[in-house]
Amino acid sequence: MNLTLKIWRQKDSKAKGQMVDYKVTDISEHMSFLEMMDVLNEQLVNSGEEPVAFDHDCREGICGMCSMHINGEAHGPDRGITTCQLHMRMFKDGDTITIEPWRATAFPVIKDLVVDRTAFERIQQAGGYISVNTSGNTQDANSIPISKHAADEAMDAATCIGCGACVASCKNSSAMLFVGAKVSQYALLPQGQVEAADRVRNMVEQMDKEGFGNCTNTGACEVECPKGISLENIARMNREYLAATFKG
Amino acid sequence: MALDSKVPKGSIKDKWTDYKNNINLVNPANKRHIDVIVVGTGLAGGSAAATLAELGYNVKAFAYQDSPRRAHSIAAQGGINAAKNYQGDGDSTYRLFYDTVKGGDYRSREANVYRLAEVSANIIDQCVAQGVPFARDYGGLLDNRSFGGVLVSRTFYAKGQTGQQLLLGAYSAMNRQIARGKIEMFNRHEMLDVVVVDGKARGIIARNLITGEIERHSAHAVVVGSGGYGNVYFLSTNAMGSNATAAWKIHKKGAYFANPCYTQIHPTCIPRSGDYQSKLTLMSESLRNDGRIWVPKNMEDVMAIREGRKKPTDLSEDERDYYLERRYPAFGNLVPRDVASRAAKERCDAGYGVNATGEAVYLDFASAFERYGKEQAKIHNIQNPSPAKIKELGQAIVEAKYGNLFQMYEKIVDQNPYETPMMIYPAVHYTMGGVWVDYNLMTTIPGCYCIGEANFSDHGANRLGASALMQGLADGYFVLPYTIGDYLSSDIRTGAISTDSKEFEEAEKEVTERINFFVNNKGTKSVDYFHKKLGKVMWDKAGMSRNAKGLTEAMAEIKAIREEFWKEVSVPGTADEMNPELEKAGRVADFLELGELFAKDALMRAESCGGHFREESAELDGPQKGEAKRNDKDFAFVAAWEYKGEPADAVLHKEELEFKDIELKQRSYK
């Protein structure tokens, strides 16, 4: 198929960006979206132009690097996938595809489609861990039975890949789905209880400092999340936060 | 220089304990004055960085990704082995040790493997304490599954995302130390050289991938945990950015590179679909617990399927050739990876491949649906369930176990694997070879350590499933933090290492000159052009089966590609900005050297062992006909190569392998 691409080009974080049109031809429907971008970039390199910078790495939907806003949707039109898992069979010959970076104050553009997501790093550093040193003397892994239900629910929250699609999809650029998932994973497990109050307080405080917006329950984040992280995690974080406030 | 593996004396069971009791320690007050650089933040690098910082060292950690959490360990699916014997099925430290040495086709160092098995149980305890949500059964205890090449269930897992969960565990431990200031994290930085001062590794040169700035970083020791070199094939299951540059740079500065020809071709990957393909996707080995591998028995059926006249589900049981069950009745579909891959290649080479390219076999879950469905019907007391009900109940169980993998398959191939068998074919996945290290995990450069997939030490010529995660975390959490202390104990009076020395200056100059060459070369061909060309030679001549003629040609061809690369490569953009093409150019330049050494090593090793199959060395008759033939008399050694300029001139050093605790015998899975 032949396509027109409208892509955000921006030289660096200080430059003013703009949408630029490109044409690609003979695109196979079996290609992944990023393979289509490879074709474009090969074309640009061969004509001596600078290729489009975009983040990507594992190309199997787990590392969370890839981050394109395609036709107004984070990770494009398909559900439950990252950009690297989007296939060209979702498009048809003659389509015009708009490709933008994640847009959020807390995610400044570094170059073209690459954004700076280190705000997520700082939120996790504020409390996204259990304080246990590596010793080889921790108690036996089976010494605390954990109900299958709780373990599975913690796992569901823990599958978040930290891509930032939730922020990019939210009209308020809220990071509450991301933070809620991390808070939930530990809140659901007995190991996480000891530091639960401090954790949620510190992570929420850092989230606010980074300039993410608030949640107004529209649920766009849940729809666009490639890993199906549920809104329940935001509710749980709010409960945990409220409880932590009362604990003083 | 003679290779000294520094394996402690004593019985294999006591070596590690005695070693720990007798090494020098660094007191906490002194640790505060010692800096350690860790390159790579996957399971090995991430766990090492966190643990060293917990101990009190000042750690500087480097990742080319925008977060340590994105290192490619994240993509490991199936699980992590540990000799916990929670299932009471006869597992033990010795058995894990034995399975790993046998699985590696008797080409690994016994003492290292025993230590790995010994610390494996601690890893699970540590990860659970960190909040890693491993799968549990209804009693709340940890669940296990089985992997290829073993007869017990010792694999712990978190759905099909075990690597992700373990890495997030190590990452959370890192975050705690980053918050305390004990780890200084350098995201989007790439190590481009190691700096050796007075014979010791004392720092690195790194490039800031956002600004292009070249930076000097000093430390008392350098730890490289940068992963494997599978991308030398261009197409592999590795991440796009996975590269050998850090490992290759230390090789060029004096670290020997061991057994580069030991590469794991993983049997269950999604087949390639076209020339535009950028990478291959793995379908976890855990699927072989429940999936059965087959091709049609009759060529007419193969043709009918390829032409779309028949569907695989149309074939009756006796029209199918479950070739692994046929050839290896004892292990069946759970033979080790090298064996399963070669068997798939054998069927496809014989013309039985089931897709248009002739390079695919089926992985079929129909009998698992039925088995689980019947069991569920019993559990739920459903009398006389219809076949449809059985299938439905069975599919729900399979979905709970492997749902994310089935979804991944459907998204890529556009076929529903619940309704039609998956198509799979082997693909490059893991490299057992790597930087040579002694028992302390130190390379032949004093003060330079190498951990995880980047080193050669534990898997011999073939790695068993679910052992990579085990090794990465064993090295980082439980081995390196001890061994590095012994070395650093002599550095307590050294003080901070200056970056103003001539050694740093020279290393920086070399790095800068190379970068300037790339951006100024203005050649005619893209970096990918050369990478793909290299990959094709590697796959065709140093892939699943190899012979002397092909390997000799490969060496010459790779050299020619390298020469063309340095003339014709084109890198747009400048050096002082984010420039992904420039990053790739440096990595491919290193692969173009590594590839040739790889072929040279494969040519030298005129035996078949594990993932290295030499056509000249196969069993010609008897019950093992067609299987790989090892030659212990001439090749029971580690091949450690010393850099001497051109890869073809590399000098071979042999570390003879001694097997005192395991009898050397033919590896049989029949």
Automatic annotation (TrEMBL), chain A:
Keywords: 2Fe-2S, 4Fe-4S, Iron, Iron-sulfur, Metal-binding, Oxidoreductase. PROSITE patterns: 2FE2S_FER_1 (PS00197), 4FE4S_FER_2 (PS51379). The keyword Transmembrane helix does not apply. Its cofactor is [4Fe-4S] cluster; [3Fe-4S] cluster; [2Fe-2S] cluster. Residues 151-181 form the 4Fe-4S ferredoxin-type domain. InterPro entries: 2Fe-2S_ferredoxin-like_sf (IPR036010), 2Fe2S_fd_BS (IPR006058), 4Fe4S_Fe-S-bd (IPR017896), Beta-grasp_dom_sf (IPR012675), Helical_ferredxn (IPR009051), SDH/FRD_Iron-Sulfur (IPR050573), Succ_DH/fum_Rdtase_Fe-S (IPR004489), Succ_DH/fum_Rdtase_N (IPR025192). Belongs to the succinate dehydrogenase/fumarate reductase iron-sulfur protein family. This is Succinate dehydrogenase/fumarate reductase iron-sulfur subunit.
From TrEMBL, chain B:
Signal peptide: none annotated. Its cofactor is FAD. This is Fumarate reductase/succinate dehydrogenase flavoprotein subunit. The keyword Transferase does not apply. Residues 35-469 form the FAD-dependent oxidoreductase 2 FAD-binding domain. It comes from the Bacteria. Residues 531-669 form the Fumarate reductase/succinate dehydrogenase flavoprotein-like C-terminal domain. Coiled coil: none annotated. It comes from Winogradskyella marina. PANTHER family: SUCCINATE DEHYDROGENASE 2 FLAVOPROTEIN SUBUNIT, SUCCINATE DEHYDROGENASE FLAVOPROTEIN SUBUNIT. Pfam families: FAD_binding_2 (PF00890), Succ_DH_flav_C (PF02910). Keywords: Flavoprotein, Oxidoreductase.
